[in-house]
Amino acid sequence: MAAYLFVYGTLRPVLRHPAFDKHLAGHVQYIDQARCPGRLLDLGTFPGLLPPADGDEEVVGDLLELPEDNEDALLKKLDTYEGPGFERTTQTVTLPQGTEVEAYVYTYEGPPGKGVAIQSGDWVRHQRGRPSS
To answer: Residues 20, 29: contact at Cβ < 8 Å?
Structure first.
């Protein structure tokens, strides 16, 4: 049975962040853009996903299929990459056509009150709206 990973920040393929290239490129299959219940925080150079404060909040991300033969090793590498401020959980994510899929999601478990809310729930859109340095 296939296992899935919902990514919403630096691991989104469209950003081509070095972390995606290092940990996921060549190992996962891109399925589609998806949404997950939650709130997104800007924590500086990366975002964090929190549970929704109300039922309407969603985070935009991408659904990736994990390789069956390397799933455990890949998840262990991602656990290390995400670090102690994030916990791997499973949640229901929704694809554009309405299909729901259970996927691994890294939720933010760091200090409360840290970060700034991203109203759009979309890290890519948020990043593209930032002024260039």
So the answer is: no
Tens of pLDDT, residue by residue over 3-53, are: 999 999 999 999 888 989 888 999 999 999 999 999 999 999 999 999 888
User: Which helix (H) or strand (E) is 1 found in, with range?
Assistant: none
Could you give the domains of the chain? 3-128 (3.10.490.10)
Q: How crowded is the C-beta side of 96, counted as CA atoms within 13 Å?
A: 5
pTM of the model: 0.92
**pLDDT tens per residue across span 68-123:** 888 999 999 999 999 999 999 999 999 999 999 999 999 999 887 889 999 999 99
Number of helices (H), then strands (E), in the chain: 3, 8
Widest pairwise Cα distance in the chain: 45
Burial state string for 47-72 with b = 16 or more CB within 10 A and e = fewer than 16 = bbbbeeeeeebbbbbbbbbbeeeebe
Q: In whole angstroms, what is the distance from residue 29 CA to residue 119 CA?
A: 29
58 and 36 in contact (C-beta within 8 Å)?
Answer: yes
